[in-house]
Structure formats: structure tokens, C-alpha cells
Amino acid sequence: MKNRHIHDEKQMMADIMLYLAGNQKLFRTHIKERKVRRNEVFHTDSDYFYIVKKGAFVSELSSDKGNTHSLMLYSEMQIFGRSDSQSSIAVSRALTESILYQIDRDFMIDHLYVQPDLFRSVTNVFFHLTEDFVRMMALSNMKPQDKIICTLYLLIKRIGLDREGNSFQLPSYITQSLVSTFCRTKKFTVTKEYQRLISEGYLEINGREVIVLDFQRIEDYLIPFSPKQVPVFL
Fold first, then answer.
1. Is domain 4-136 in CATH 3.40.50.970, yes or no?
2. Which end of the chain is less packed: N or C, by CB atoms within 10 Å?
């Protein structure tokens, strides 16, 4: 099943940017483009919303032991930020050379307030984002083998890649290291599981290219699990 809400989110964000651009003077005053280099750590400010114009970001948390845990993935035309009360324990890191729209929060809210349909759509985006976060956190209850294939599934769904068809190439930023930080497991374990997925016809690797051969099979793999164990998008 294609993840429609991600497609709708990206289209809705594109529509919002078009709407906000209606007054170019205000747009230039309250919306800035920020270039972020690959692997640069980006600290969000509660006075702004951020929409990814180009590239991809991962929200990360460092543990007391120095380990990095990935929390959420954001790709083009997806929104993120932080609340006024949220402490800066998590940071966002650019996975590619990226560009962000930095939008004054009050400016955006004031404009959406007079557009109830757009405002409702934005609130739905944040509801879905919360659901996605809960799904990511539920991975900790799974066995490593199942956790890794479920993480791939969730990341693919998160960026709407499955809308391109049943077979597709993963973006280069979805590395085994990134998957391991979402799974909170060792990269060696991810590499071992990738080999199993290759041998069983789920994946194909050509150099640094990772190709999903049959996404439907990945969905089917997850069906037998209890919904309490596997946070699927079905």
C-alpha cells in the first residue's frame, strides 16, 4: 500500500510555499534560504519552521555513552522544527548538500490562520509526524533481523519512495550506517542482514547502489507480525 500521507504532505508543503510567496516583499522578509553542507549539524530555533527545499536531514540524539541514535528522517518538502519548551538535546544533520526554507513561525501561523483548510492540513502533518516517530521508537522491541527490514520499510515509506513503483534504488544517504543508528544496532549486524536480503531476492547491491527489487515482498514479510511488534503503515 502506497504511503499517501507522505505524498500529500509534500504536495501540501509545496502549496503552502506557493501561497506564502503571493506577497514577495513579505516572503523575502520572513522566509530565508539556508544552505547546509553535507554532515553539518543544524541547530533548530523555536522561532522558525524549516522546510527542506533540497536534500535530506536526520534528527539525532547522542547518548551518555557517545552513541548516536537517529530519530526521524526528513526529505524534500517535509517540515520540522522544535517547540518553545523543547531543550536542544536533539540536533538535525544534513545527509546531503541541502537547502532549507527558514520560515518565521509567527508569520506562517498568521497566514495559515486565515486559511482554515491549509491550517488543518498542517496540523495533520504534525499528527502524522508524531505517528511516524512512535513507529520508529517501537523498533526497539523487535529482534535485530526483523528490526532492520522494518527500518528499511519505514524509511522508504517516510520519504515516499514506494510511490515510484515496486522496484527502485535507495537514495545514497540511506546507508548501512544510517540504518544501524535507527535500529540502535551495530553496522556489522546490518551488513549481515543485507546479505540475507540479497540472497533471498529482496535487495540487490551494485557498488554503492542499493536496489529494492520487490517492495511488496517486504510489506508481505511484515504482515505476520503483531501490530504491537511491527509499527507498519498498512
1. no
2. C
